[in-house]
């Protein structure tokens, strides 16, 4: 999508910023950011959204753990294990997304490690410090010390949204980027 935009608009400079979900909301409202990519999180009425990715959540389990050999695991099984997860102050939408799912099943994991990045979670699970849950798109990260295992619950899914301000006029380049991104999302 980025390369197609550069071909269509060679004179346009695209600047990306790595920000967590909550950090994006104010700059989107203020028009500082043209668009954002966010995971499930409450949005103010001033922002529009379009789903670009709907994917299953998956368990990450150390390879030698008894649950690692199962074809699927339940949230109940995971909630009984030491859980490696996001620091609640980081502001990632996945924090609310995954803990909200567990609350719907009246579960509360025993969080023993809190970190700021998904890659750190993956590394700590591979080191045997606990289990965790992340969206399937992270499954691209393969480590021999851990296994990705599907969750038994059918509603264990996560969405990624394309978000933009309702009341700010978008440039043609931004509109085209959004079109290309939505087309790419529908193909996958």
UniProtKB/TrEMBL annotation:
InterPro entries: LysR_subst-bd (IPR005119). Gene3D superfamilies: Periplasmic binding protein-like II. Pfam families: LysR_substrate. GO terms for cellular component: protein-DNA complex. Coiled coil: none annotated. Keywords: DNA-binding, Transcription, Transcription regulation. GO terms for molecular function: DNA binding; DNA-binding transcription factor activity. Residues 5-182 form the LysR substrate-binding domain. Belongs to the LysR transcriptional regulatory family. This is LysR family transcriptional regulator. It comes from Salmonella enterica subsp. enterica serovar Poona.
């Amino acid at each position: 999508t980025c390369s197609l935009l550069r071909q269509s608009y060679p004179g346009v400079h695209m600047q990306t910023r790595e920000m967590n979900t909550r950090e994006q909301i104010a700059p989107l409202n203020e028009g500082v950011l043209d668009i954002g990519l966010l995971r499930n999180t409450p949005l103010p009425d001033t922002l529009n959204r379009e789903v670009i990715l709907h994917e299953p959540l998956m368990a990450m389990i150390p390879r030698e753990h008894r649950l690692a050999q199962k074809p699927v695991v339940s949230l109940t099984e995971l909630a009984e294990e030491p859980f490696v997860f996001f620091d609640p102050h980081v502001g990632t939408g996945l924090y609310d997304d995954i803990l909200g799912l567990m609350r719907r099943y009246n579960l509360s994991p025993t969080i023993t490690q809190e970190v700021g990045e998904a890659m750190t979670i993956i590394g700590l699970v591979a080191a045997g410090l606990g289990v965790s849950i992340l969206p399937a798109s992270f499954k691209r990260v393969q480590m021999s010390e851990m296994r990705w295992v599907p969750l038994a619950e059918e509603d264990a899914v996560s969405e990624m949204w394309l978000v933009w301000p309702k009341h700010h006029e978008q440039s043609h380049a931004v509109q085209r980027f959004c079109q290309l991104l939505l087309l790419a999302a529908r193909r996958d």
